[in-house]
Each structure stands twice: as structure tokens, then as C-alpha cells.
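Quick one, C-alpha cells below. Sequence please?
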């Protein structure tokens, strides 16, 4: 069985991205993790989560199936590792956080800038990735 809930803070907080990857938007509620920062990653439109001052805000996705966990895990960049976080309201959530030593930018990532500048092309990239993923799954 997969982890109980996924804390999303970057591209996966956009319903269009989730729908493109797993055909639905799981149940979700606003959530936050203290002691974490959502930072820009060099050359990537999506962010990373690193320890830092402040509060990382996002959503807690619940009710993911094991297959949906597999898809999201395969989709995520190797720069991440799955880590269980304590959320400010006392709940827990798993999150894809940057591996120690990952190269990150000095500035925070902006969901608003991503939505305005990168979201349509990113959805296209997600759809192409999913087609490749499903073809590979059928071939194996």
C-alpha cells in the first residue's frame, strides 16, 4: 500500500496537471509545512522543496490509489526523494523533496508565474510523458 497522503507544493497542485497524469483530481485540502521552502530549480519550470525558514504552502492529496502513486513516482524527477513531513495542523504528508546536495536557485518558485508563463506547455509535456509511460508499461 502506498503512503497515506501526498503534500504537493509545485506543478502537482494544479488540477490540470493531475488530470493529465492520472485522469482525475484527488481529494485535496490546503496544507502547509513549516521549516520548508519552495525554491526554483535551475532550467526547470517546476520547483523543489528544501529545508529553510518559513512555511511551504500547497495541498494535501488524499485517496490516491496504488497505481496513481506508481504513476506520480515514475513522473517525478530523480532530483527528488519521498519524505514524510509534519504539517502545521498536526497531520502528516509525504512530499517529493530535493535530495541533499541538489542544485537549487536562491529565489523562491512562484506558482503564479508558472501558471501564467509555463502551465500550457507543461501540460503538453505531461501528456507526452504519460503516452511514453503507458507505452512502456504495455511493452513490459
Amino acid at each position: 500500500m502506498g503512503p497515506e497522503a501526498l503534500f504537493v507544493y509545485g506543478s502537482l497542485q494544479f488540477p490540470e496537471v493531475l488530470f493529465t497524469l492520472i485522469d482525475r483530481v484527488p481529494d485535496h485540502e490546503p496544507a502547509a509545512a513549516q521549516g520548508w521552502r519552495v525554491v526554483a530549480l535551475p532550467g526547470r519550470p517546476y520547483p523543489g522543496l528544501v529545508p529553510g525558514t518559513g512555511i511551504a504552502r500547497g495541498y494535501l492529496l488524499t485517496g490516491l490509489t496504488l497505481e496513481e502513486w506508481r504513476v506520480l513516482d515514475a513522473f517525478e524527477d530523480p532530483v527528488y526523494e519521498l519524505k514524510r513531513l509534519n504539517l502545521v495542523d498536526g497531520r502528516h504528508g509525504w512530499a517529493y523533496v530535493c535530495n541533499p546536495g541538489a542544485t537549487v536557485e536562491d529565489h523562491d518558485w512562484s506558482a503564479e508565474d508558472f501558471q501564467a508563463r509555463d502551465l500550457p506547455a507543461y501540460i503538453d509535456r505531461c501528456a507526452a510523458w504519460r503516452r511514453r509511460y503507458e507505452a512502456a508499461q504495455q511493452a513490459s
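The mean pLDDT is 95. The two ends are 22 Å apart (CA to CA).
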